[in-house]
Amino acid sequence: MRQGPRCAASPEITRRVFLGRGGMTLLSLGLAPLCLARTAFAERTRARKALVAIFQRGAVDGLSMVVPHGEGDYYRRRPRLAIARPGEEGSAIDLDGFFGLHPRLAPLEPLWRAGELAIVHACGSPDATRSHFEAQDYMESGTPGVKRTADGWLNRCLGLLPETGAALRGVALTTKLPRALEGPRATVAFRELSKFGIRSATLAQGFQAEYAEAADRLLGGSARGGFEVLETLGRIDRTAYRPPAGVRYPPTALGGALGQVARLIKADVGVEVAFAEMGGWDTHANQGTSEGQLARRFDDFGRSLSALVADLGARMADVVILTMSEFGRTVAENGSLGTDHGHGTAMLVMGGGVRGGRMYGRWPGLASDRLFEGRDLAVTTDFRDLFAEVAVRHLGVQRADEIFPGHVVDRRHFLGLFA
After folding, report:
1. Does residue 370 sit within a domain?
2. How far apart are CA 10 and CA 285, in angstroms?
3. Which pLDDT does position 369 carry in this prediction?
4. Mean pLDDT of 203-228
């Protein structure tokens, strides 16, 4: 089991400061804990570029998310679960005559038509595991098949970018620091920004005054960095903010997280990497088609992404949103009207400089002799090549091989996602 920063909730300010790998943990005011790694502080720093990574945990059915409605084998293998062809009731939204979006992802269609959304199908890991835990760990560490990797690919990515001095370079809107952001570079995880408005700046000052000497003996400069993050969050919260007129995030965990991502980016506190996640994609039974449990997840997912893009507005020129999932689902439906753990899936890329309105990657087909292990959508795009292209072409990383140790990043394998 991997080791890393861990947090536990507390009903009051806890008078303890203790070490975690690469940094410290502060427990605060009975709220979702704030996990910090070593940081430096800048009063106000606008990041050059920002990446928003969204993990669909549980293995999203990419064949329902981005439907190959032009593939006859899709309908033969899913007689009850296939999303209908365009023009039929509950049908896929046609994109290019062969692929279509799930009907509950309609909020994303305008982004496709505007050339702001690109889709990479048959994407995933070269590792064949169907274990959620292993596959998520490999995707977040960026080292498929290797369990001993100490840090995450997003943390390594930050380490390859010039230091800005910002307190909030890497941010996760999660209850604990995700594997992808674990490591020695500046990262912070918290669940709800707004709750830190409850005397958060005063809290930080008082905590610092009482414990700074002891914390410095234990942690050196990392304790001061933690106080600076608290103070920064307090200032953000006291700043009046409302999304632009007409922008409505769903009242869900993902909608709330992405609303806070937009707020942090627009506050110019130097966010370069933001991370959010959404679970519930493990649809072994009663998956549904245009209605049902999977459709409800897509509704939340599509509306949340659309709201984030609308909220950021012109700032999207400097932001890329990248979605990912540990693997896909079986091509054939099972006897419980669901799908089982598969292999390849679909990933979305949208935002600054993206050449959208196009499908990327090589479609392997769903005929029996084209399936991975005779049952799954094959992977034709290694997720590391996709992630590396985003890191290089968008964030400006120069030494992408260091993000994915053991993998040669060959730019000839880039998909051409960016203009």
Report:
1. yes
2. 37
3. 97
4. 48
pLDDT digits (tens, 9 = 90+) for 78-123: 999 999 999 999 999 999 999 999 999 999 999 999 999 999 999 9
CB 144 within 8 A of CB 387: no
State in Å, rounded, how far the first CA of the chain is from the last one.
Answer: 41
Q: Is residue 234 part of a domain?
A: no
Per the rule left: phi > 0, alpha: psi between -120 and 50, beta: everything else, 170 is beta
Query: Given the structure tokens 């840090």, which residue do they identify?
Result: 151
Would 15 be classed as within a structural domain? no
How far is the C-alpha of 340 from the C-alpha of 130, rounded, in Å? Answer: 9
Domain range for residue 335? 37-192+252-413
If you write DSSP's letter for every residue of 155-183 in order, what string do you get? HHHHHTSPP---S-SEEE-SSS--GGG-S
262 vs 203 pLDDT, higher one: 262
Give the helix, strand, coil percentages of the chain, each rounded to 5.
35, 15, 50
pTM: 0.87
Residue 332 has pLDDT above 80, yes or no: yes
Strands 170-172 and 187-189, sheet pairing: parallel
Contact 180, 53 (CB under 8 A): yes
Q: What's 317's domain CATH number?
A: 3.40.720
Q: Is the pLDDT of residue 409 over 90?
A: yes
Cα–Cα distance list, 374 to 46, 314, 342, 371, 394 (Å): 49, 46, 11, 5, 37
∠ CA 107-101-368, nearest 5°, is 160
CB neighbours (10 Å) of residue 88? 11
**Is residue 203 in a domain?**
no
CA 388 distance to own-chain centroid: 15
CB 191 within 8 A of CB 32: yes
CA distance 244 to 50: 20
Question: Percentage of the chain with pLDDT > 90?
Answer: 73
Q: Where are the alpha helices (DSSP H) in 220-335?
A: 221-238, 253-266, 293-312
Buried b (16+ CB within 10 A) or exposed e, 284-315: eeebbbbeeebbebbbbbbbbbbbbbbbbeeb
Total domains in the chain come to 1
